[in-house]
Every structure is written in C-alpha cells, then in structure tokens.
From TrEMBL:
<dbReference type="GO" id="GO:0071555">
    <property type="term" value="P:cell wall organization"/>
</dbReference>
<keyword id="KW-0479">Metal-binding</keyword>
<feature type="binding site">
    <location>
        <position position="227"/>
    </location>
    <ligand>
        <name>Mg(2+)</name>
    </ligand>
</feature>
<feature type="transmembrane region" description="Helical">
    <location>
        <begin position="337"/>
        <end position="355"/>
    </location>
</feature>
<dbReference type="GO" id="GO:0005886">
    <property type="term" value="C:plasma membrane"/>
</dbReference>
<dbReference type="GO" id="GO:0046872">
    <property type="term" value="F:metal ion binding"/>
</dbReference>
<keyword id="KW-1003">Cell membrane</keyword>
<dbReference type="GO" id="GO:0009103">
    <property type="term" value="P:lipopolysaccharide biosynthetic process"/>
</dbReference>
<protein>
    <recommendedName>
        <fullName>Glycosyl transferase</fullName>
    </recommendedName>
</protein>
<dbReference type="InterPro" id="IPR000715">
    <property type="entry name" value="Glycosyl_transferase_4"/>
</dbReference>
<keyword id="KW-0460">Magnesium</keyword>
<feature type="transmembrane region" description="Helical">
    <location>
        <begin position="228"/>
        <end position="245"/>
    </location>
</feature>
<dbReference type="GO" id="GO:0044038">
    <property type="term" value="P:cell wall macromolecule biosynthetic process"/>
</dbReference>
<keyword id="KW-1133">Transmembrane helix</keyword>
<feature type="transmembrane region" description="Helical">
    <location>
        <begin position="84"/>
        <end position="102"/>
    </location>
</feature>
<feature type="transmembrane region" description="Helical">
    <location>
        <begin position="15"/>
        <end position="35"/>
    </location>
</feature>
<feature type="transmembrane region" description="Helical">
    <location>
        <begin position="313"/>
        <end position="331"/>
    </location>
</feature>
C-alpha cells in the first residue's frame, strides 16, 4: 500500500502537472511555427547549403523559441520551490538564447561571440544564485576552486563548453533533443535519489519542454532546434549539473559529467582530430560521430528509405546511447572511483567506435589517440 501511495503521489504531484503543461505547450507552439512558416520563413528558414547540412528542404530553425516559451508556461503551473529555482535559470539563459536566435535569423553572429554569450549566461547564473562549481573531485583542483574568482571563471567556461557541445551534436532529427531529454531525466533521477526533489522537478520540466519539441522535429524534420535552442538547452543542462553538485555533496562530479559524456567527448575529440589535421577547430566538417554512423551503417542498413528518414533513424539511434550513460551515472553517483571508471569507459568506447568507423577494423582507443602519424580520418569521406 505504501508503494502504491508513493507512485500515486508522484504522478499527481504539482511538478508532474507542470511538466504536462510544458510538454503540451511546447508541442502546440512548435506545430504553430510549422503551420505559419510562410509568414516568418523569410527570416527563420534554414536552407540546404552547407557542409554539415543533411536536410533536403528549407526548414524553420527557431525551435528554441517554443521551448523557452513553454518553459515559461510550465513555470506558471509549478510549485513555489520549483519556480524559485527555475526563475534564475530562465533569466540567466537569455544571453545564450538571444545570441543563438540572432544567429538563426541573421547568420551573422560569429562563433566566438556566441561562445562568450553562453559563458555570460554562466556568469549571470552565478550572480543571481551565488552558486558556482567548487569541486570536480580532482585532488588539487578542488582546492583552487575554493577561490571564488577561479570558481566563477571555471563555471563560466564549463557552461559555455557544454552549451557549444550540444550545438555540435545537433546534426540530425531527434539527436540533440533525445540526448538532452534523457540527460535531464538522468539528473532528475539522481536528484530524486538524494532527496533533492526541487531540482528533480526543475529537471523534469526541462525534459518535458524539450520532449514536446522532439515530436515535431522527429521523424520528418519539420522544425529544427537552431542555435538558440541548442545553446539554451546546453546552458540548462550545465546549470542543472552545477546545482546538483553544489546542493548535494554526496554526488560525484564524474557522475554528473558522465550523463553528458556524448556531447563532451564529441567536442573534445573534434578539437583533437582537427588539431591533428592542422584545421581550424571551429571549421565545420562531416567527420562528426553522428555523420559517420549515418554513412557507415544507417545508409547501408536502411538504404531503401529516404534521406530524411535515414537522418531521423541516425538521430534517435545515437541519442539513445545516453540511456547507458544515465544508467551508469545513477548506479555510481555515490562513488567517485566508480563514476570515474564509468566516464572514462564511455569516453574510450566512443573513441574505439570512431576508430572502427574510420579504419574499418577494431583497434585500441589509446593507440588511436596516441599514434604519432596522422590518423586516416580522411578515409571516412
């Protein structure tokens, strides 16, 4: 009877009601944007030219707008404690969101400026909440992070890094939205296990609003997340992780990092391989993990389907990899040693699979990373 009462309490809680409002409003607003694209398409459309673009028809790329608006709707139905935590997140996320939307509309906002905007969101979040990262569970580093100025700067860089990582993986229908929805749920489950029901409620609302967008973006790609959406979601993921660690000392920093292992590893490995090729780290290409999975496997297994359907299959397949990450994070969050093993194992698994795709045979991920000559990544083209 106690278990039944607990389950009923969860599903009839104000946070669940607010999440339902967030999902419904997000989905409805996304549909509205698609239906009215002939009116706003002159400034909102993402056209098909570009080295990293796989879509076959011009598509609105302002999906971040309904996500943020629906989060506001969910806020009005949330309990007071969730509202209090969500308010500074919404305010602080505005620099990242506004500069991202400006790029979606104008295509004239440089990468450096957008990165600075996401870092500004991290600084603003600290200013509003007095919260910043004071530990990463690495000896020596934690001592340095006890100095406020160092902690704030480190937090701003971390927030900017995660925000840009989400933007980088936003390559196929459903990829970023599946990954981020699962990540928010992963953080919610950890928060719930340690008794932080307020943070669990905030994470649940964020997941619901992104999930509403997912069903318009996937499988037919009627609406794209855009830079505004990806930067805001990335900021929100990073800030939820910061709050999880600062409010709950029993949670390992590596467990929080493991939840976002895919985008974090993707951006770090992208910097590495571009350095190896002596290419600009910000230069776009088609050698991202998701791009190779589509061409190496999805194109072969699902070649009978249209390019748009293959894009959607790729997005969900890779997005669902986050399930492994959140399961491991929820199992190891109380142990730094185990969560380090989980994070490192997942990261090396990424590199091993990437090496398999470009070399056409399995090899040690460490050997692939430490090889002195240039890895044959051009063979993937």
């Amino acid at each position: 009877m106690n278990i039944i009462q607990a389950v009923n309490g969860v599903f009839h809680s104000p946070a669940i009601t607010a999440a339902a409002w967030g999902f419904v409003s997000s989905f409805a607003l996304c549909v509205l944007l698609v239906l009215t694209k002939r009116w706003h398409g002159v400034w909102s459309m993402d056209f098909t030219d570009g080295v990293q673009k796989f879509h076959t028809a011009p598509t609105p790329r302002v999906g971040g707008i309904p996500i943020v608006l629906s989060l506001g709707v969910a806020w009005t139905h949330a309990p007071a404690n969730v509202q209090a935590m969500l308010t500074p997140l919404l305010i602080a996320g505005m620099p990242a969101f506004i500069f991202g939307v400006a790029e979606d509309i104008s295509n004239r906002v440089g990468v450096a400026l957008r990165l600075l905007a996401t870092m500004a969101s991290g600084m603003l979040a600290w200013w509003l909440t007095d919260q910043s990262l004071h530990r990463v569970d690495i000896w020596g580093v934690d001592w340095v992070l006890h100095f406020t100025i160092v902690s704030v700067i480190f937090t701003a860089f971390a927030v900017g890094g995660v925000a840009n990582a989400i933007n980088i993986i936003d390559g196929f229908n459903g990829l970023a939205s599946t990954m981020s929805t699962l990540a928010f749920l992963g953080y919610a489950m950890i928060a719930w296990q340690v008794g932080d029901t307020t943070l669990a409620g905030v994470s649940l609302l964020l997941a619901a609003c992104v999930w509403g967008f997912f069903w318009v973006n996937w499988p037919f790609g009627k609406l794209f997340l855009g830079d505004g959406g990806s930067y805001f979601i990335g900021f929100a993921l990073a800030w939820v992780a910061v709050l999880l660690l600062e409010r709950n000392p029993s949670v390992s920093a590596f467990a929080a990092l493991a939840v976002c292992v895919h985008p974090v590893t993707e951006v770090l490995f992208s910097i590495y391989r571009r350095k190896v090729k002596k290419a600009n780290p910000g230069h776009p290409d088609r050698l991202h993990f998701h791009s190779l999975v589509k061409r190496r496997y999805v194109a072969r297994w699902f070649g009978q389907y249209t390019a748009n359907i293959r894009n959607s299959i790729t997005g969900v397949l890779i997005g669902l990899l986050t399930l492994t990450a959140i399961v491991l994070a929820n199992l190891t969050y109380e142990s730094t040693a185990l969560s380090v093993l989980a994070f490192v194992g997942l990261g090396l698994g990424y590199v091993a699979f990437y090496a398999r795709m470009v070399r056409h045979s399995w090899c040690s991920p460490l050997a692939f990373l430490l090889v002195k000559r240039k890895p044959p990544i051009d063979s993937a083209l």
